[in-house]
Each structure stands twice: as structure tokens, then as C-alpha cells.
Design brief:
- By secondary structure, this protein is an alpha+beta fold.
- The chain has helices at about 15-40, 70-75, and strands spanning about 45-50, 55-60.
- It comes from Linum tenue.
Length: about 80
């Protein structure tokens, strides 16, 4: 028996939205870590909360994942050559 499907839309209740964000963020970061370990892949994840707080993960030991992004690094991340989602 599988889980029921939910409608993907914005959660109106701010408390429920924050709880859901926290749980899903943790799940996303866990899956990214697992992918890096299982597949020996370089994985990077950047998530901004609705309040603007940054959460990140980088699988490479050469990357300092606790430094704040600079305007230059963010412009590289969101440059026009990157695929748009």
C-alpha cells in the first residue's frame, strides 16, 4: 500500500509551511549526501528559505560549505549559460 498523492501547491498556513519546509529540506539534503556516497558523485545543493536563510551542502571536501555566497559566485550559479528550470 503506497502513500496517497498530495496536490502540489503553496501551503497557506505559515506554521505548517515552515514545518513542511524543514522536513523536506532535511530529506533533500539526506538524499543528496546518499547520492554523493553511493555514486561517488560531486553534489551541491543550495536552498533558501522564505525568510532568506541559506542552507547548503557540498560533497567536495575542497569546497568550504560554510562561507556565504558572494554576488560573483551567485552570478555564476544563475548565469545565462546554466540550464533554466
Amino acid at each position: 500500500m503506497g502513500r496517497g498523492k498530495i496536490e502540489i501547491r503553496r501551503i497557506d498556513n505559515s506554521t505548517s509551511r515552515q514545518v513542511t519546509f524543514s522536513k523536506r529540506r532535511n530529506g533533500l539534503l539526506k538524499k543528496a549526501k546518499e547520492l554523493a556516497i553511493l555514486c561517488d558523485a560531486e553534489v551541491g545543493v543550495i536552498v533558501f528559505s522564505s525568510t532568506g536563510k541559506l542552507y547548503d551542502l557540498a560533497s567536495s571536501r575542497s569546497v568550504n560549505s560554510h562561507s556565504s555566497p558572494t554576488p560573483y559566485s551567485m552570478s555564476l550559479l544563475f548565469s545565462t549559460s546554466a540550464p533554466q528550470i
